Amino acid sequence: MTARNLDCPKRMHFGPCGGVRTDGQCEMRPGPCAFPDIVTWPDPHPHPGPMPDPPLVLADFSATPFDADDTRAVASLLAPTCDAVLVGEHQNKPDFPPALLSRLITDSGARPWISLSCRDRNRVVLEQELRALVYLGVDTVLCVTGDGRGYDVRPDVTQSFDLDGPRLVSLAAEMGMSAAVPETPTAPPVHRRPLRLVQKQHAGARVAVLNHVTAPSTVAEFMTAARAAGLTIPVLAAVAVFTDSVSAAVLQGLPGLELDADVVERVLGAPDPIEAGIEAAVAEAQALLSIDGIDGVNLSGSATASGSRVGAEIKAEVAARIRARA
Predict the structure, then answer these.
(1) What is the Cα–Cα distance from 122 to 127, expressed in whole angstroms?
(2) Rounded to an integer, what is the distance from CA 23 to the centroid of its chain?
(3) 266 Cα distance to chain centroid
């Protein structure tokens, strides 16, 4: 096992993370990323866990934090048309523990894919959460290093980064879970990102979820390179779902993530932005699903600034139209 990089503020062993800015700068401190190239996983994982049946439609789960009623309502709205929901972890929006969220969502009829971040949990707590998810029957966990907490978000609280994403993948695989991983095709070093995803596969990942990019052609190029490098696991591509300026801005607020400016202008300038946003998302999904190696799509974002339940209704409609046209 490689030693951690002392210059990385996330204490990563297998970098770089997906948050490297477009100019190569670190997202957490001034200066360039500590990893000039990817760090390869030493050996393919001997116990990679089950190969999942990839969902056609995975939807970002956006609910009011610490609100069990809203969590149940959003899950109930998404369950009929979405194969699974991706429960994220945000540095500025804590919520119930993953095991409790999983139970609330499952009891409401949806299948949760839980994100586990290394930012706020040391290895012991990560092990506890994984075992709780296994006990509850959650089959897939998205393993992420996690974005750094903003300087003005709980400055009195430390950040753990006891593990990084690939080592968390290995831990989840050892427990028999299906480990999912993210990858950002447009994060530096761009030409090495396909191989970076293959290294996560070697660590034990069984499915990948790509972050959204401006054009399906970028995904096609990434997939061609990744398959050539040895990628064999299922891949889901991100579809940006937005219907107003706020939901569009959120999708562009993270390092390396951008939207097609022409699509944004067309949706926001339409007489009915909600209908335009839904149709734009469906069109993007169809283009992505036509790419060799893309097995499904992730409906990414909150969809609207009008509340979590309206957002769930929008994503549920996008999912229904994707299915109808598949």
Answers:
(1) 9
(2) 22
(3) 26
Q: Cβ of 286: how many Cβ atoms within 10 Å?
A: 16
For residue 248, give the 3-state DSSP assignment. Answer: helix
115 bridge partner residues: 142
d(CA 209, CA 237): 6
Q: What angle do CA 65, 177, 109 make, to 5 degrees?
A: 45
Q: Is-contact 320 81, C-beta < 8 A?
A: yes
Asked if the model's pLDDT at residue 98 lies above 80, the reply is yes
Question: Rounded CA gap, 52 and 247, in Å?
Answer: 31
Q: Are the C-beta atoms of residues 251 and 325 closer than 8 Å to each other?
A: no
Summarize the confidence of residues 137-147 as an average pLDDT. Answer: 95
Does residue 6 surpass a pLDDT of 70? Answer: yes
State pTM to two decimals: 0.94
- What are the structure tokens assigned to 163, written together? 């593990």
Taking a C-beta distance cutoff of 8 angstroms, is the pair 113, 152 a contact?
no
- Burial (CB count <10 Å: 0-12, 13-18, 19+), residue 41: buried
Contact 77, 316 (CB under 8 A): yes
Rounded distance between C-alpha atoms, residue 253 and residue 274, angstroms? 21
- The mean pLDDT of 230-234, rounded to a whole number, is 95
User: At 195, is the pLDDT very low, low, confident or very high (cuts 50, 70, 90)?
Assistant: very high
Query: What does the angle CA 202 – CA 203 – CA 209 come to, to the nearest 5 degrees?
Result: 85
- Rounded CA-CA distance 229/210 in Å is 17
* Higher pLDDT among residues 193 and 45, named by residue: 193
> Residue 308: how many CB atoms within 10 A of its CB?
21
Q: Which two tokens stand for residue 16?
A: 């770089």
Dump pLDDT digits (tens) for 287-303: 999 999 999 999 999 99
Cα gap 202→232, rounded to integer Å: 10
Which residue type does 171 have? L
What pairs with residue 183 in β-bridges?
210
Q: Is residue 220 scored above 80 in pLDDT?
A: yes
